[in-house]
Amino acid sequence: MVTVRRWWGRKGLQVASLALVLGGAWILRQTQGAMLLEVYQVVTSPLQLLQSGQTPAERLEERLKDAQFMEMQTRIQELESQNQQLQNLLGYVQPEPVASRPVPARVVGRSADHWWQQVTLNRGSNSGIQEGYIVKAEGGLVGLVDSVTPNTSRVLLISDLKSQVGVTVSRTSAKGVLRGDSSAEAVLEFYEKVPNVKVGDLVSTSTYSQKFPSGLAVGKIKSLDLKKLPASVAKVELFPPIRSLDWVAVYPKPTNQPQETPQSKKQEQANQQ
After folding, report:
1. How many whole angstroms from its chain centre is CA 26?
2. Bridge partners of residue 174, in order along the sequence
3. pLDDT of res. 7
């Protein structure tokens, strides 16, 4: 007991001081920790920016882009949800989509004399490909299989002068026929005399197309001639890289597509008047 008292006499002040410091630190952590953390972040933030190689302005721009992306993603999800609700309400029947399992193929033949007309693929009937099958590449629709051998397929490109594709302007549903122009652009002839369209509008395949399912991306309107007779026309910049095709995907042709006839065209125009 005497020994303990002697030890306390020598060490008691130090032990009490240590306990006071630890207690104060614990209280500070509980009450002021958040403030100290904020101060630490403010002090070290410039160092972190220097280490990342970004300036404050670049960091802010990146955050704004991230926020805009998330906002757009949220909006898209909302629109998809609203679209689904409307489809359910109206009993909408979705047109038959392009098959989910395409046949991948590579361009192995292309003539300089027919560069914009046709290409030959390294897959044919042995791979399940048939005449009338749809060919797509990155960006959208490329063309249609018009002849097949056991190991090859010939594709008529949408840039060919003989190509005709029923299309629609996504923003306003204005419809017309897209004709190839032997280039990376095509000519869109509208059914209406003065369609509701503008430069930059997106163009996709129409529900009236006899050869293609609706909704396949084609391109965007590059220029307009609303004074041309008998109907307005537009130059369409094609999305797929037809000039330098390499790999493509081949899909079965659609079935049960609505057929476009002169009567359907007249009825459509009458409904829009």
Report:
1. 54
2. none
3. 54
